[in-house]
Amino acid sequence: MTTAALDGQQQGKQRGKAPRPGLVTLFKRSWDKHWYAWAMVAPVVIVIGVLVLYPLGYGIYLSFTNATETNIAKDIGPVHIPATYHLVGFDNYWKILSGQDGDFYPRLIWTVIWTLTCVAFTYAIGMGMALLLNRPAKFRLFYRLSLILPWAIPAFVSVFAWRLMLNSQYGVFNSILTHVGLPAQDWLGTPFAQKVAVIMVNVWAGVPFMMVALLGGMQSIPQELYEAAEMDGASPWKRFLHITLPGLRPVSNTVILLGVIWTFNMFPIIFLLLGQTNSGDTDILVTYAYRKAFTGVSDYSGAASYGMVILAILLVFSTFYRRYQAKTEQA
């Protein structure tokens, strides 16, 4: 084939290809075709941008600076003092991850223990209650509403009620102990007692969600499977292991993931229950970051760096957890 023929063939191919539309053109076509959907979604996008994306971006920026209460811009009467903080790169992250901070790894270990313990107890108790409520019983609707009550009550109301019950002088727990002849306990006074108390309150507040989610999953399992297994002589325990648990796997994967994320970031339970009596040993990463930002000389850059590290930990965990569950389901 001659060179002229080849050139003509290439020119023909180029003429046959339509030019790819640009981003503006694609957006205009999408707007013309789906303008109503864009208009409905716009308020949500604006709210998310203002309440989530802007604080997140500003937090990322602060984490690369040395901003503290002493060097940020401030107004003292009519005098305006400009900001003097500057970018320091990854110094804040290096201080945290290298252990120079001194508090990150102890707080991380306790946060992991707190999260695993709370999620394990919450899931186990929620599973037990869901099994009980999934069986025919009188006043079952009343029991369901009563067990959902802790979830419906605002968190600060629940926590303050528990603070009163755990009070060392007037609390109902110590009243019961002294009534049966046992010594009263300082439930919120020692580091170990504080850890037990916050786990107990968080489990109490988290069980209703687990129960409702698992109960909904149980009711979606076909009853024919249980009837067939019962006719084959399978015991209740075997029916639970081989029918209930596999049938609940999609729901369990989701609620465990949500439980880990929520518990890892559970700020109100610890902060409101302990208040100023917190010994510091009970602080998880998120409450410790809050104290860095709003206690003593506020370290805004350090708190922002902690926030970004917490976000990274949860993103990595969520990614690997979902991949592991996907492999398990395929197997």
Can you put this structure into words, describing what you see?
By secondary structure, the protein is mainly α. Helices cover 72% and strands 2% of the residues. The protein contains 14 helices and two strands, in the order H-H-E-E-H-H-H-H-H-H-H-H-H-H-H-H. The protein has a two-stranded antiparallel ribbon with strand order 1-2. Helix 6 packs parallel to helix 12 (267-274) and helix 11 (249-264) packs antiparallel against helix 14. It is globular and about 80 Å long. It starts with a helix and ends with a helix. Mean pLDDT is 84; it is low at 3-8 and 12-17.
Helix content: over 70%
Gap between N and C termini, in Å?
55 Å
Integer average pLDDT: 84
Radius of gyration: 28 Å
**Spatial arrangement of strands, main beta sheet:** 1-2
Oligomerization category of the chains in this entry? single chain
Strand content: under 5%
Q: Tell me the series of helices and strands, N- to C-terminal.
A: HHEEHHHHHHHHHHHH
> Using DSSP, what is the number of strands?
2
Segments where pLDDT lies below 50 for 5+ residues? 3-8, 12-17
For the largest beta-sheet, the strand count, sense and barrel status come to: 2 strands, antiparallel
Shape: globular
Give me the number of helical elements. Answer: 14
Overall SS class:
mainly alpha
